[in-house]
């Protein structure tokens, strides 16, 4: 009844005074804050817990009638709820303006506890429910919270050794989900830079894992925005990171794909971005792949083929080209 009275402006002051008197009785009778917690049935269910009137009464009793500060709001919640349940409770409470501040404060305490006991960023990622609902991941406040935790973890637990963001994301989301997530985030100015960083890391991981270009191409064409450019970036990373044996095998497969798509040496030259960059074109890993494709194309379609020099001349002035050829000797 007193709880209901506190919700009405005309009876609010009276209800507050009566609650203070009631707390005095509890204290004189030696009623513990934990007993008050269970009296208000705060240990039964977590839905809107922080917004319940009984929670505010209990929290006030705990704060004002807690000699020696033997316990805290968080410690009590920790006793009654598991890490996962408490994390869900706090995440939900952060969505309401009336409980956001308290929930964020309690979450910080929880995260510090995780850090003190060495909870891995991967485990915390899941506790923060970041393994669910991939499309808006980068706009989630919990993602930023996790990034801060991962940074603190690597500083305090591994002397600055990097915590791989992309490895964690890949452990909980499929490649296609990540590509869609990145495409969505790149379309928004506030998350564009973050998404671009993750995209670069994902492409590097694919290359390191030796994902076939055809597989990556299919993913990018299904969801990504800057498809052609990303394909070129991936092929460059793949050629740099792969072993000679793996690289040759993948090159042959990719050349076969280009031939089936009726691509031309000129088109692939541009796709591999060999028409851009100030460094020696002959020393770039993509050049060998392009040259192999150009030779294959010439064998299959000699009437449509033109010389390597002709392709190079179309993209480089004679003098710079001569210098590039000279530096390869």
Which features characterize this protein?
0% strand, virulence, mainly alpha, signal, 329 residues
In terms of DSSP E residues, the strand content is under 5%
| Shape category | rod-shaped
Largest sheet: none
Radius of gyration of CA atoms, rounded to a whole number: 30 Å
Model regions low in confidence, pLDDT < 50 over at least 5 residues: none
**Portion of residues within helices:** 55-70%
Structural class: mainly alpha
H/E topology pattern = HHHHHHHHHHHHHHHHHHH
Q: N- to C-terminal separation?
A: 92 Å
Count of distinct strands = 0
Q: Averaging pLDDT over every residue, what do you get?
A: 80
Count of helical stretches:
19
SSE layout and pairing:
Blueprint: H1 2-5, H2 9-28, H3 33-39, H4 53-64, H5 73-80, H6 83-93, H7 100-116, H8 121-127, H9 141-157, H10 165-172, H11 175-186, H12 189-209, H13 213-223, H14 227-241, H15 244-260, H16 265-271, H17 285-300, H18 308-315, H19 318-328
Helix pairs in contact: 6-7, 10-12, 11-12, 11-13, 12-14, 13-14, 15-17
């Amino acid at each position: 009844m007193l709880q209901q009275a506190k919700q009405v402006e005309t009876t609010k002051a009276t209800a507050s005074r009566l609650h203070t008197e009631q707390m005095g009785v509890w204290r004189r009778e030696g009623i513990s804050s934990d007993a008050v917690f269970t009296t208000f049935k705060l240990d039964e269910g977590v839905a809107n817990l922080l917004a319940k009137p009984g929670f505010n009464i209990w929290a006030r009793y705990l704060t004002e009638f807690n000699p020696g500060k033997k316990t805290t709001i968080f410690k009590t919640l920790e006793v009654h709820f598991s890490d996962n349940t408490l994390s869900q409770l706090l995440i939900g409470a952060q969505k309401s303006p009336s409980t956001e501040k308290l929930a964020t404060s309690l979450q910080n305490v929880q995260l510090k506890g995780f850090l003190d006991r060495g909870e891995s960023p991967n485990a915390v990622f899941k506790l923060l429910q970041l393994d669910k609902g991939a499309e808006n991941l980068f706009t989630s406040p919990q993602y930023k919270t996790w990034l801060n935790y991962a940074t603190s973890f690597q500083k305090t637990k591994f002397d600055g050794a990097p915590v791989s963001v992309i490895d964690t994301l890949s452990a909980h989301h499929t490649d296609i989900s990540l590509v869609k997530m990145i495409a969505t985030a790149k379309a928004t100015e506030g998350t564009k830079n973050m998404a671009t960083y993750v995209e670069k890391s994902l492409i590097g991981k694919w290359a390191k894992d030796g994902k076939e270009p055809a597989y990556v191409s299919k993913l990018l064409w299904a969801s990504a925005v800057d498809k052609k450019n990303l394909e070129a970036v991936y092929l460059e990373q793949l050629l740099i990171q792969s072993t000679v044996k793996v690289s040759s095998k993948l090159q042959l497969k990719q050349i076969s794909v280009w031939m089936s798509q009726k691509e031309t040496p000129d088109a692939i030259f541009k796709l591999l971005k060999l028409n851009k960059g100030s460094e020696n074109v002959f020393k770039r890993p993509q050049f060998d792949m392009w040259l192999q494709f150009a030779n294959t194309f010439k064998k299959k379609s000699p009437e449509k083929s033109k010389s390597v020099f002709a392709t190079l001349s179309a993209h480089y002035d004679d003098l710079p080209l001569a210098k590039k050829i000279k530096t390869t000797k």
